[in-house]
Amino acid sequence: MPEERVELLAVLATDADAAVADRAQNVALTQPLASFIAAISRPDADSRLFTYCADNLGDKPGIADALAKNPACPTSLVARVAPFLSSDGIQVLLDNLEWLTGDPELVLAVCKCPHATAQQ
Description:
This protein has one domain. 63% of the residues lie in helices and 0% in strands. It is built from 9 helices and no strands. The protein has helices at residues 2-12, 18-28, 33-40, 47-56, 63-69, 75-81, 87-95, 97-101, 104-111.
């Protein structure tokens, strides 16, 4: 499955062997964004996938929202990509106030989101 492949590539991109990490990073850059979004959405996604996507793809359409929608994703990574959240991604966080308010850094980042609606 494509989402399993990109998850594996993200994990390999953190390999201690620089040659393996570089090769995985280069191949990952050629993969469709939709595969990463599908991989991020999985409840059992590897934490290294979340980090890879926040670091390398956070500004791409749908990535920030997918990270925000997965409760397994660390809030610190969602805070890092908060400027790229759509109003839908912001709403997901507002609908889960316990998760949102558990991290003051995330609250501050969401408050500065440029795509928040007036109601949000």
